[in-house]
């Protein structure tokens, strides 16, 4: 029994040793497989991250190519070309590393047949974008036809490259997930074997071992997931940091090259200045803490003014206009913005931005000078027009007096002699003379009406503008035998200010008289339209027309003075007058009068 026990014990010991060896072997195998899988997963994570980054880099190349070919971007060409060159190199190296492997990037040189097939499809698009970007980098003029053609090549190949790269990334992810599934299957098999051994050994060895293995596996999986998450977060953080650094450097370079600014301490000592500031004021050495007032001006009053502004507003900020006289050049005027800020803890500084308004100020002074000159010229012109109006009134009064004396006076004298020569004893001759007296009386009445027609009609005062214009057109049509008509197309019947009505009447009267006197018109149409805010009167004639640009408003001959009076009257009532005419095609005069 003892022997059996010894044999059993020996046998059991062997079984225990075998069981423990199997367990140890399974644990070792599990550890080896897990370690190998972790290494593979690290490589897979790197490959997936780099493959994903390829999409970002291709979009970055496209963006920088667009910026390079944009007109007006010459100040940033070098920076964009440097950035495009760096992006292009990283993109190319990563693309080759994904296909051929890279020790420096920890990328294995083994790809599946499916991934190799996808790379064979994407390579033509990659080569096209890579060659087109090289053409952009070597171009002397990034906005010429060749560069635009290269840009179009990049734009045409970017979309298919992104689609195929998405498929490659998905394939890498799919293969990584497959590895995880295989590991899980293997883990189940090893766990089953371990459980069988533990079942054979019962609770003495396998139960604690199983718990330890399960705990260890769970910890390994958790650690793996944490490691993957940390790797992704680290890549994202590094990428964001690199992007922010690049944007900060680009912004700083752009500010230095384009913005007219200077940065000082609270005492006015220059710490940094932009290129436009250095180009204009040419400070000798900014590292020796030159004072701002000494750099921008050589005149003491200007220096004292700037020092006073800095002392009074270094904590609150200020914006206004200053003058400065550089050592080399004339006085300049600037709009200055004083902005205090805290760069570091207890490190207060001032950002001072200048806008050169010298040309604007000079233009403003020139406008004031021209305005004064124009005002004086306008006063002189008004005096001249007033003098001509008075002279014209005197001539009109003399003409009326001459017409009354030469026409109506002679006809009245003839009427008197005819009356005195009537002999009632000779009825036949008396009847002939009476008939002649009737005709002569009609001529006298017509002459009086013609002589007095230019005076203010009572219809204008009693009934308004439209009845007065209707009477004017009718009377002139009867007196001259011409076809003169008024068309009130919108039935305008409002009363206007008396000055507006009389001036509008006189302008219309002058336009009709000019058409009769100078244009030889046979048909004259006066059209009236109105809206809520505007009254419009058109005077159209079929006369010989003229060139409006050839009319000298200062010349009294040929109706020029009449046009002057028409413009002056229209300006007086805040209206507008337009003349449209061509030789041989008649004339249209448009009056636009505002209705309050």
Overview of this protein structure:
This protein is 66% helix and 13% strand. It is an alpha+beta fold and 596 residues long. The strands form two sheets. Strands 2-1-5-4-3 form a five-stranded antiparallel sheet. The protein has a five-stranded mixed sheet with strand order 6-7-8-10-9, covered by helices on one side. Helix 1 runs parallel beside helix 5. The chain has 14 helices and ten strands.
List keywords for this structure.
disordered N terminus, transferase, 10 strands, transmembrane helix, 14 helices, membrane, alpha+beta, 596 residues, 66% helix, 5-stranded antiparallel β-sheet, 4Fe-4S
Tell me the distance between the termini: 135 Å
Helix content: 55-70%
- Based on helices, strands and strand pairing, what is the structural class? alpha+beta
> Kindly state the mean pLDDT as a whole number?
78
Instruction: Describe the sheet with the most strands.
Output: 5 strands, antiparallel
User: Could you spell the SSE succession in H and E letters?
Assistant: HHHHHEEHHHEEEHHHHEHEEHEE
For this entry, what is the oligomeric state of its chains? single chain
How many strand segments? 10
* Lateral arrangement of strands in the main beta sheet: 2-1-5-4-3
Residue runs with pLDDT of under 50 for 5 or more positions: 1-5, 553-560
Beta fraction of the residues?
5-15%
Number of helices: 14
